[in-house]
């Protein structure tokens, strides 16, 4: 029985996925040669490929660039008050709305910046907040 179980486990975890894994590895190495990835530790490579899974939300607030706004404007104060009361999941949803991903890209968190801009609409009560994920701009009506 032990030999049967060992052979079955080996088949399920090794032999049955060998061909798909080899195809994946060949394609991956064609686009990302292994010599380029050897400089990373496994943890660093994970951050480069997946992004940061945890975010320092206070640092994110600190790094924001304001256009047509000041940090002391009531709209900005209200935004950050509400934002910091959100659950972690909702904050990541906002990040997804802003950037297209719920993670900060692989470079250092200290350098991640986005802009909050007043779209300067005539009737801001009729305009919803929008985002330009390519430019990392959050349009927040007053």
Mind sketching the topology for me?
Elements: H1 2-15, H2 18-31, H3 34-37, H4 42-50, H5 57-62, E1 65-67, H6 74-85, H7 88-99, E2 115-117, E3 130-132, E4 137-139
Parallel strand pairs: 1-2, 2-4
Antiparallel strand pairs: 3-4
Note the total helix count: 7
CATH architecture of the largest domain: 2-Layer Sandwich
Query: Any idea what the radius of gyration is?
Result: 23 Å
3D shape: elongated
Give the terminus-to-terminus CA distance: 71 Å
Alpha-beta content class: alpha/beta
Helix content: 40-55%
GO molecular function: ligase activity; ubiquitin protein ligase activity
Keywords: Ligase, Transferase, Ubl conjugation pathway
EC number: 2.3.2.26
Enzyme class: transferase
Describe this structure in words.
This protein is α/β, with parallel strands linked by helices. It has seven helices and four strands; from the N terminus they run H-H-H-H-H-E-H-H-E-E-E. A four-stranded mixed β-sheet has the order 1-2-4-3, covered by helices on one side. It is elongated and about 75 Å long. GO terms for molecular function: ligase activity; ubiquitin protein ligase activity. Keywords: Ligase, Transferase, Ubl conjugation pathway. InterPro entries: E3A/B/C-like (IPR044611), HECT_dom (IPR000569), Hect_E3_ubiquitin_ligase (IPR035983).
